[in-house]
Amino acid sequence: MMTRRTFMGSLTVVTAAAGLGLGGISVFQRRLALAEIDSASLEPLVNGSVTLRDAAGGLRTARVMDVRSVRHPARRGAPATEQVSLLLKADDPAAPAGTYGVESTDLSLGELFLSPVNGEGRDQRLEAVITRIV
Predict the structure, then answer these.
(1) How far is Cα 52 from Cα 55, in angstroms, rounded to an integer?
(2) Helix (H) or strand (E) holding 6
């Protein structure tokens, strides 16, 4: 027969183990909306690795080569805009252009259209350009 003290001790151990297990599984990944993407939010990704997820669920890895930003002043009733360029080098040189979900270990940029730039083969880069109103 189990005493109350034994039961409470067992319950505490099981609860603590479950809590540790859940804590190990959950990963915090901040997701940015397109309107929130700017050069300051992407700068920490430079020289880091990101995962590209295509529409079929296939995964590719890439390295962030550069992040650039150009601001355009407001003109003739049009608002001021900022264009942010994210330049990637896919580990697979045959990575096609297309829409990819772009994620790092702690940041998700959602789906971006990546266009090939800078030649073909090993020199090929993929670029996403985000234009936002500032």
Answers:
(1) 10
(2) helix 4-25
User: Which tens digits make up the pLDDT trace of 40-70?
Assistant: 888 999 999 999 999 898 999 999 999 999 9
- Tokens 């002043």 identify what position? 73
Tell me the whole-structure pTM to 2 decimals.
Answer: 0.72
Q: Which residues contact 46 (CB under 8 A, 6 or more apart)?
A: 64, 65, 66, 67
Contact between 134 and 39 (Cβ < 8 Å): no
Q: Which amino acid is at 2?
A: M
Of 109, 85, 100, nearest in space to 33 by CA = 109
CB 111 within 8 A of CB 34: no
CB atoms within 10 A of CB 69: 14
10, pLDDT greater than 60 = no
Percentage, residues of the chain above pLDDT 90: 45
